[in-house]
Amino acid sequence: SQTIHQWPATLVQPVGSPLSLECTVEGTSNPNLYWYRQAAGRGLQLLFYSVGIGQISSEVPQNLSASRPQDRQFILSSKKLLLSDSGFYLCAWSLTSGSWNEQFFGPGTRLTVL
Amino acid sequence: AQSVTQLDSQVPVFEEAPVELRCNYSSSVSVYLFWYVQYPNQGLQLLLKYLSGSTLVKGINGFEAEFNKSQTSFHLRKPSVHISDTAEYFCAVSAQNQGAQKLVFGQGTRLTINP
């Protein structure tokens, strides 16, 4: 069976510090991968998605970036965090075949920028 | 582009009462429709989906939703709620026929069940 991991689970960082959140998927190959952010009092917003190694599409301009160095690894980064980067970050994966595939979400990382 | 509006940010109900969580969407192309549930400090879990066919879809935990194309709505219902249904519920859409299925979410509705 497939599993998705995210770490760390919680993170408190000062403004201006760097960020690296990691997401890994087990039990599948060549998945589509997604990063979402849930800001306080708001819905989820798609930040990045990837259909393959090294292929990253950005949905929202911001000071965050994403990378996919391996097939089942998706990393969210920032060089300098802003207060507005606080939120709950969710990684998700889906299969790539067919007209529709369910997205499976990880447990999330709660980021607080002070 | 697509957008989703969940009309109620919070819905309090008593246990065993019926509940309806409202969702409206807009899109210039055909879409798939979803409801997700998020329990505190957890990821999202798919409740149900509408891809095609019958407009009334049934999901897990006794929930159902009805797709109304003319009203561009996809309201979620449950005839009798339990304490364990306390969670945040998200309506989402995804354009059909796109390579990576990008979900567009509503703002969420916090369902609180009171004993």
Structure description:
The complex is a heterodimer of chains A (114) and B (115). By secondary structure, chain A is mainly β. Chain A has strands at 3-7, 10-13, 19-26, 32-38, 44-52, 55-58, 64-70, 73-78, 87-94, 104-105, 109-113. In chain A, strands 2, 4, 5, 6, 9, 10 and 11 form a 7-stranded mixed sheet that branches. In chain A, strands 1-3-8-7 form a 4-stranded antiparallel sheet, with no helix packed on it. The mean pLDDT of chain A is 92. Chain B is globular, with a radius of gyration of 14 Å. Chain B is an all-beta fold and 115 residues long. The N and C termini of chain B lie far apart (41 Å). The A-B interface holds A 32, 34, 36, 41-46, 49-51, 57, 59, 90, 92, 94, 99-103, 105-108, 110 and B 4, 6, 32, 41-46, 49, 51, 90, 92, 94, 96-97, 99-108.
Strand fraction of chain A: over 45%
Largest interface: A-B, 27 and 26 residues
Based on secondary structure, the structural category of chain A is mainly beta
Count of beta strands of chain A: 11
Beta-strand level of the residues of chain B, as a percent range?
A: over 45%
* N→C terminal distance of chain B: 41 Å
Low-pLDDT residue spans of chain B: none
The residue-averaged pLDDT of chain A reads 92
Global morphology of chain B? globular
Q: Given the structure, what is the number of helices of chain B?
A: 0
| Counted beta strands of chain B | 12
The low-confidence parts of chain A are none
Q: If you average the pLDDT of chain B, what whole number results?
A: 92
